[in-house]
Each structure stands twice: as structure tokens, then as C-alpha cells.
Design a protein that fits this description.
Blueprint lengths: L12 H11 L12 E2 L21 E6 L1 E5 L1 E7 L12 E21 L2 E9 L1 E6 L4 E5 L3 E5 L4 E7 L9 E8 L10 E5 L6 E2 L8 E7 L1 E2 L2 E2 L8 E8 L5 E5 L5 E8 L2 E3 L10 E5 L7 E6 L4 E8 L6 E4 L2 E3 L2 H13 L20
Antiparallel strand pairs: 1-24, 2-21, 3-4, 4-5, 5-10, 5-11, 6-9, 6-11, 7-8, 7-10, 9-12, 13-14, 14-17, 15-16, 17-23, 18-22, 19-21, 19-23, 20-22, 24-25
InterPro entries: Pirin, Pirin_C_dom, Pirin_N_dom, RmlC-like_jellyroll, RmlC_Cupin_sf
Keywords: Iron, Metal-binding
Family: Belongs to the pirin family.
Length: 353
């Protein structure tokens, strides 16, 4: 996602860098030059065994998702990937799109080195890519796209009279370095294909849509390249609670988009449009979340940290500066995953002559 509408690119890597920077101003805070940062190193290995005791993690950071312009006439709320929460391995960006007018969207743009996860909670979105894939993502559906070595695609929300406004999320997840240059692939789930867990039974006040990972005995068929659990949690009644197990050492956060929640035993209430990042004590086995209002909803996401540097320029996410420069050369020359960079234009993106 994120409307990287590229104009023709002149020869030479520095011309490419200058051209791309123009189209990335809406994506990152400072793109007059390539944006580079390095993740902190994770020294301890992943521990998969979880204690029987339920010990909740706590909140260590709270970030308000500020609304900003994005793509072609769209607006999103961004938390991860903003200046306030730049580095949260393995997560690169989280956008909550909810204000998309007619003709607005995310036209033709490339990716390399990450997975993009699009989850619709209302309305629908059309998708098309340079490999010939196309279709529609409906409310409740998931598209888990591994960009791998390179793909160009367009994502255009469906807007019109009598059509529900498109609302959803897009998460960017860094790929482990050994998977950066794999062939692009998709794992799509229809609304009916997303399994649902009911911790207190089907008539209870808590439900969990299991987009990836495991929750209360229910497992998603999605198999990401790298550990990532993604849940849509609904807490229908004030005071309803969920304890979600989380693998030890994994980075974990929640984004609240309806209502308010409390975490663990603390009385602090966290409001809608906030991302809350959880602690990572070795004795903690998961996170306890309690609704402070009826009709509370959130996404709860956890991922295995990556012991690797992150060098990023817009939609290109690699491990070294040289790899990012190579991605730009490949895009300019139309090679190594970007063979159709200069000849393909989507039908839905509105960029055809």
C-alpha cells in the first residue's frame, strides 16, 4: 500500500533517488534522503515454551496514531512507522485507513523485502499486481502479501453511493534476511475463512478473529515467513476480559480502534486510536486486556524480533545500504523482480494514459 505513484525514472542511481523521494513524502517523515536506521540486536533466542501460570505483560509505551495524508487523496492514522514509534522489530508500519473519498486510494507502487498484511473491517478494496493477480478484499477478509524480491501493485478502496465506507488496516512486517529475495506470494483468507475463537463460548462477550497464530485452541491457516500472530479482538461488554498467550521474547502491541481498555492489574484506561506497546518480562506468559466500555475492539499483534539491521527507503526494506541501492537499480532497469516496472500499469490505479 501507500501510493508510491512513480513517474518515469531517468538513468543514474542519483536521479532515481531524487525521483523516488518526491513520491515518498507522504510515507515517511524525512525522505529528502534515504531513511536508514538499525534495529537493536536481540541476543537471546526465542523461547517457545509458555508457563501454565497467567502472568500479564504491562504497557511500556503509548502512541497516538496521528491522521495524515497518504497515497492518492486518502487519509490514514499511522502509529508504527511514525516519528514517535519508528523501530519496533519486526514491525515497520501500521496504518488505519478510514477516510477514503471517491477516486482516492493507493495506486501503482513497488515493494521489496517485506510482507504487507491488509485486513478489511468494513467495505471493500480492489487489488491488482504486475504478476497478473487481481481481485477484491471484502470486509473481514485478509491479504497477506510477501513482496520478496519485488512486486508492483495497486490497492484502491471501493467508494460509492450505498456502499459502506472502506475501513481497515495495513501492517508492514520485515522479512528475515534469508527470505528477502524469495518469489512474491500471497496467503488470502475470505471473511468466512478467518477462524474465530470464543474464550467464553459462542454466546460469551469475547471473540477473537485469528488472522495468524493461535488463540484459545483456534489456529489460523496463514503461515508467515517469520513468527507473527495477528488477532482482531472484540469485547462486547464493559468489564469483559481476555488473556492471550504470547510466545516468550516476542514484540507485542495492540491498537485500539473502538472503546477503551485496561491492561493487567493497572487501572489506566487506554483510548481509541492509540497503539500500546507491551513489556517483555521473561516471566510474563501473555497479556490481559479488559474492556472499559461496551463494544470495544482492538487488534493485538505479536512478532518474533529479528536480529538484523534495517535499511529502508520507502517501500524497499533491506539489511544494508548497498542492498537498498541495488533495489533502486533493479527498479530503474526493470530487472530482478521488477521486469514490468516500465511497461505495467494497473487497470484500477487510474494511471493509464
Amino acid at each position: 500500500m501507500r501510493g508510491f505513484a512513480f513517474s518515469s525514472i531517468a538513468f543514474g542511481i542519483f536521479t532515481v533517488l531524487s525521483s523516488l523521494a518526491i513520491y515518498h513524502l507522504q510515507i515517511f517523515d524525512q525522505l529528502s534522503q534515504p531513511l536508514f536506521w538499525t534495529t537493536s540486536l536481540i541476543n537471546s533466542p526465542l523461547k517457545s515454551n509458555m508457563s501454565v501460570a497467567r502472568i500479564s505483560r504491562n504497557v511500556v509505551k503509548k502512541v497516538f496514531a496521528v491522521e495524515q495524508a497518504e497515497g492518492q487523496g486518502a487519509r490514514v492514522r499511522r502509529s508504527i512507522g511514525s516519528g514517535a514509534l519508528r523501530n519496533l522489530t519486526p514491525f515497520l508500519m501500521l496504518d488505519h485507513f478510514r477516510d477514503v473519498g471517491s477516486g482516492a486510494g493507493f495506486p501503482d507502487h513497488p515493494h521489496r523485502g517485506q510482507a504487507t498484511v491488509t485486513y478489511m473491517i468494513q467495505g471493500s478494496m480492489n487489488h491488482e499486481d504486475s504478476l497478473g493477480n487481481k481481485g477484491s478484499l471484502l470486509a473481514g477478509g485478509v491479504q497477506w502479501m510477501c513482496a520478496g524480491k519485488g512486486i508492483i501493485h495497486a490497492e484502491m478502496p471501493v467508494v460509492g453511493a450505498g456502499v459502506p465506507l472502506p475501513v481497515g488496516f495495513q501492517l508492514w512486517v520485515d522479512l528475515p534476511k534469508q527470505y528477502k529475495m524469495v518469489e512474491p506470494s500471497y496467503q488470502d483468507l475470505s471473511p468466512e475463512g478467518v477462524p474465530v475463537a470464543y474464550p467464553e463460548g459462542p454466546e460469551g462477550p469475547v471473540s477473537v478473529r485469528v488472522i495468524s497464530g493461535k488463540s484459545h485452541g483456534v489456529e489460523s491457516p496463514v503461515r508467515p515467513l517469520g513468527g507473527c500472530w495477528y488477532f482482531h479482538v472484540k469485547l462486547d461488554k464493559k468489564g469483559s476480559n481476555i488473556f492471550q498467550d504470547i510466545p516468550a521474547n516476542w514484540t507485542t502491541f495492540a491498537y485500539i480502534f473502538k472503546g477503551r481498555v485496561a491492561v493487567g492489574d493497572t487501572p489506566t484506561a487506554y483510548e481509541s486510536y492509540h497503539t500500546i506497546v507491551f513489556s517483555n518480562e521473561p516471566e510474563a506468559t501473555g497479556v490481559s486486556i479488559t474492556a472499559e466500555e461496551d463494544g470495544t475492539e482492538l487488534i493485538l499483534i505479536a512478532g518474533e524480533p529479528l536480529d538484523q539491521p534495517v535499511f529502508q527507503y520507502g517501500p524497499f526494506v533491506m539489511n544494508t545500504k548497498q542492498e537498498v541501492e541495488k533495489a533502486l537499480i533493479d527498479y530503474r532497469s526493470g530487472s530482478n523482480g521488477f521486469e514490468k516496472a516500465h511497461i505495467w500499469k494497473s487497470e484500477i490505479g487510474g494511471l493509464r494514459d
